[in-house]
Amino acid sequence: MNELPPIRAGITDEFGVDYTLPVFGQIAGLGDRYWEWAHRHLSPKFRQQLAAARAGERWPDSFPIFARTWLEAQTHIRWQAVLALWGTTLVALAVAGARATAARGWVASGWWVAGFLLWTLVEYGLHRGIFHHEPRSLGGRQFHFLVHGIHHKDPWDQTRLVFPILGAIAIAAALFAALRALLAPGPAMLAMSGLLGGYLAYDLGHYAWHHAPCRGGLLLFLKRYHLAHHFKDMDRRFGVSQPLWDWVFRSGGLRS
Question: Where are the domains of the chain?
Answer without folding.
Answer: 1-76, 79-248
